[in-house]
Amino acid sequence: MKSKSGKRIGIFGFGCVGQGLHDVLQENPHLDVARICVRDQEKLRTLPKHHFTYDAQELLQDESIDLYAELISDPKEALLIVRQALRAGKTIVSANKKMISENLTELVALQEEFGGTLLYEAAVCGSIPILRTLEAYYGNEPLLEVSGILNGSSNYILTKLDAEGISYNEALAQAQALGFAEADPTLDVGGYDTLHKISLIAAHAFGAVVKPEQVLRAGIQHISRKDVALAQALGGRIRLVATAKLNQNNKLELQVLPTLVFPDSELYHVEAEFNGVQLEARYAGDQFLKGRGAGSHPTGSAVWADVSAALAGYKYSYPKFRHNEEGELRPVPVEEDDELKIYVRSTMPEFLPQLPWRELTVFGEGKREIQLVGTIRRKDLLLHLSALKQTIAFIAQLPAHVSAEQVVAASCIALEEAA
Ligand SMILES: NC(=O)c1ccc[n+]([C@@H]2O[C@H](COP(=O)([O-])OP(=O)(O)OC[C@H]3O[C@@H](n4cnc5c(N)ncnc54)[C@H](OP(=O)(O)O)[C@@H]3O)[C@@H](O)[C@H]2O)c1
Asked: pLDDT tens, 30-64?
């Protein structure tokens, strides 16, 4: 049976997201699905074999296909597919945040040169329509800050640690069993996935093409019950928060850091696998979007929304990009000189005090572990971060109003309660 629109879509990938999109398209038959390109010829599938191809070129060279959805888990192959489609002036939607964030300049240029379209709402916060909101609604209004919880796996783990007092490894195992975390969870818990997403947000919200090394990034993999209890004793919770903030010097502050949040923050109330994004706009003020950041149908829904928009002729306009007279993209300056207040717990007591702290309070000192609250310049933290991570450190940002004395007092309370 022919679909309503008579248009044909070629799908790459039939995993979590590809199947989600396929389900949505079956229930809403606006499009005909051409073959689906996958990799493994032996895998058992929920559809008969004749629906599949194992050769990407069979789809890419099929002139009867009107648009593509690239939903594979291999970023290198995904880039080749997207490049080829854009060079042919085609329309393609993708969910691959790593591939897009690492190649954004090239992918924008290809669209300009060959007239094709690339949309990727599903790559950032699954079902939350954040990119379209930034593009279409806040295209002209200056934004001051976009920050949020952008990774469902990490948030699920942090929620379980907080609510059930279980260990990090137990929480990770639960997240894996429920399909919220990959077998190799490094991209999620190490903050890389969040970094890819905040980079895409920074492009649409601030016109910035961000290099990964410009972003302060730490993950949650070394969090312990001690850190969770300390946050609770302070009346807060730890969440993995990504921030892109234009400060008073018109420079971008960029970070992905475990962060202490309090009940007056919307992010405190984002639980389990949910994502939440808060926006601060110059005239509109504060806005908050919350929803499912991953999963088969929520992400399939976002891909479908892109497919529908693309068929209606929608393209990203990157309204915040600024160009010089030669047409080159003007970089947005990134802040390096501001100070951050951070909490660190590390297993290498001798190393930590050697960093160039502006202020430093050390507590919980033992032979094998040290805790501290310190103020440090962003530039210095960026420089020493990889060495710091090698000390098996858990690092969290503290709001400026939380004093070192409060943290030390809370750590005593947490210790008493644990005893
Ligand atoms: N899962 C989510 O909730 C979510 C949310 C937002 C964005 N995303 C993004 O969406 C994309 C897909 O994720 P997923 O969770 O659906 O992955 P997945 O469940 O692991 O499925 C990946 C699919 O890609 C296919 N594939 C991998 N390499 C291929 C290649 N070289 N050529 C052809 N097909 C290939 C696999 O084929 P086989 O079936 O033959 O193995 C499989 O069908 C990723 O970029 C991911 O980051 C995922």
From this structure: 899 999 999 999 999 999 999 999 999 999 999 99
Distance from residue 65's CA to the centre of ligand 1 (Å): 21
Whether residues 70 and 204 fall in one domain = no
Distance 53 CA to ligand 1 centre (A): 15
Catalytic: 197?
Answer: yes
Among protein residues, the one whose CA lies closest to atom 14 of ligand 1: 16
Pair 197, 285 in one domain? yes
Q: Is 170 exposed, middle or buried (0-12, 13-18, 19+ CB in 10 A)?
A: middle
Domain harbouring 50, CATH code = 3.40.50.720
> Which amino acid residue places its CA nearest to atom 8 of ligand 1?
95
Q: Which domain holds residue 81?
A: 7-119
- Sign (positive/negative) of CA torsion 270, 291, 182, 73? negative
What's the gap in Å between 283 CA and the centre of ligand 1? 40
Q: What is the mean pLDDT of residues 77-102?
A: 98
Q: Which of 60, 86, 119 is the last residue of a domain?
A: 119
pLDDT tens column, 376-409? 999 999 999 998 888 889 999 999 999 999 999 9
CB 221 within 8 A of CB 190: yes
